[in-house]
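User: Predict the complex.
Assistant: Input components as received:
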Amino acid sequence: MSAPVTPPATAATQAAPPPPETVTVKVNGKTVQVPKTMPNWQGKPEATTMLQAARCAGVDIPHYCYHDKLPVAGNCRMCLVEFGTPMIGPDRKPVLNEDGSPKIARSVLPYEPGTPRGAIACATPISPGMEIYADSPATKQMREAVLESLLINHPLDCPICDQAGECKLQEYSVQHGQAESRFVEAKVHKPKAVDLGPRIILDDERCVLCTRCIRFTKDIVNDDALGIVNRGSYNTISAFPGKTFDNNYTLNTVDLCPVGALTSKDFRFKMRVWFLKETASVCTTCGTGCNTTIGSREGVVHRLEPRANDAVNGPWMCDTGRLNYKWIARADRLKEVRVGGRKSTWSTALREITAKLSTAPAGSVAIVASARQTNEELFLLKRLATKLGAITDSIAREGEPDRLLVSGDRNPNSTGARLTGVSFTEAGIQLPKIAAGIASGTIRSLIVFGEDVTQHGIDASLLAKLDMLVVSDILPNATTEAATHLLPGAAAPEKRGTFVNVKGRLQKFHKAVEAPGDARPEIEFLQELADAVAGPTGTSTIEGLFNRMTADIPAFGGVQWSAVGDTGVTLSL
Amino acid sequence: MSTKVVERKPLSAWERSYIPSFLGGLGVTWNHFKRTAPFLGNKPITMEYPEQKWVVPEGYRGAPYLVKDQEGATKCVSCQLCEFVCPPKAIRITPPGENGQPADRANAEKMPREFEINMLRCIFCGLCQEVCPEEAIFLQKDYSLTGTSREEMVYNKEKLLKLGGTHAGIQKWKHKLEEAEAQESFPVATEPQKHSH
């Protein structure tokens, strides 16, 4: 075993990076030191803006068009703030007050020096000694005026708008707006319920023209599909003629849209957002492991949303992953424990399996695990396999990668399967050996987790030769039908655990809903089985099991469950 | 806090004979008899419920029902604010979903697939009426809600709409549509056109 001692040594010998150059500014009278440059939407250093400086001071300046990960457009005007800069005398020296402090010149209109003039905080760089007045009367007045202007043609149809409850227009109206509109003319009407693409509905009347969606699809996805047509108050977001907005990232524009203009067809009129319980989770559709938030109510998953994690997915996720949750509520989910094809109980099934495995001769058991299982489950399976001298493997699942987030590896935990020792460098190379073992009669028992082995060279006639076929799965398939012991398992939103993504990021996910019927999270019955067959692990919690696993497997570096936050840790592989 | 001890006087032999209390009680009964006996020219002061019904005063908070507008359309748009605000969680709304039945009037986009009020849970507080942005639910004058099972006391959308009747309103969705249609015709009319339908 080669202990990874090199990285700390090099880190210690390297010179500490120079402290970032800072600028001192005042936000609402509070002096703060902020870095002179901060990462822009592409992560490159750029002069710090007033909005970023205010954030450093803990002051949130309201905004619609600004987004950390999109180019700055500066068109919504919501972030207008009054500011001041130190006065410079004719001698190019700072003008001082009587008490010696620098005299500040407030921003005013050049042709009307009594009138305060705002600047958009999202695009105005800070300068030394600058003062930002994020809640001065002039700033408040500017915000009220901007909101009143944005609401001039807004339909105010919150009762039928899916965005209601997470709408920045609603939030800022309450925080910064005035309650009454002075607009008496008829509102400009624009197209409603426009079918923008296979997954997106656009309501142009609700749009505040922030262009976040346009910038996202052009600059992030490289699919220049959206634009603004018509002039003045008839400005309308539209897909280019003959083009539909159908790339694999369209649903991110629904999250980006600060108002209810872009809504998801999938989530349309399904549930009001204030009822949704939010659970931090990880997408299981590919090896990237995008961080997600599951929105569920009373045991029903209603939507997935990306959860920002700059180490993995930024604030985005792909549409395929986002819509990959409906099978959880399928009616044909496995809900019953079955022994010999008949409905049974957990205690009977586990007792029979334990009895069989405890007396199995070495080498007579094989285990096909799934790289969709959690590290903890795989660790327990490996424990079982070591005791039984069993061959183990998992099944590779490949697809077409893309340039943004989708990984070619369609298993969420291939790395975890390798680290726990369930599969080898290449998943699936042991399968022919298992098939041959069953054919020759040396393998008498097969344990399959979450895979249909009949699709991978172990067909039904081979399965019929086995003495015992233990299968745990979520949905029925040819393997579950052949099982002598069928153990209904849980989908990722129904259990807790960790995955390691293709880049070695160890990530935790939480339970959002209950598994249906008798189905149980695999960890619960695997623990019972592994304890009975391979001796107790000395822990009954998932936290304890995780800590045991990371202590046992050097690649995990002894990381504790409590140290894996909701955004995960990167393992040095 | 200070405590005041009240002295209890012992009863005299006359009082302990029950006779003064008995006579006092008789006196009360006699007075009531004089005030209420019909043959002494008194009007009846009790109500023969349920044959005779009580006149419910204005502003009474009876059972909440859904109402239709003057054109017979369901006013509820399934915004679920009443479900959210309901203190005893008596209201349960099933939203229409993506492919659900559209609203039965133009432009309102949606209405509930199902709307249930459990009248056994309802506490007649009126918050649903107060929160409703569509004036679609009102506490009406029904106070005697009976049923022979719990299921029967869960009123569904059909029943609530039938019991609720009509409540004329401003028909904002209709007027929005008229305004939009007016802008489609050129030259643009300065006043929203009134449509005959």
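Chain A touches chain B through 22 residues (CB under 8 Å).
Let me know if you want any component modeled separately.
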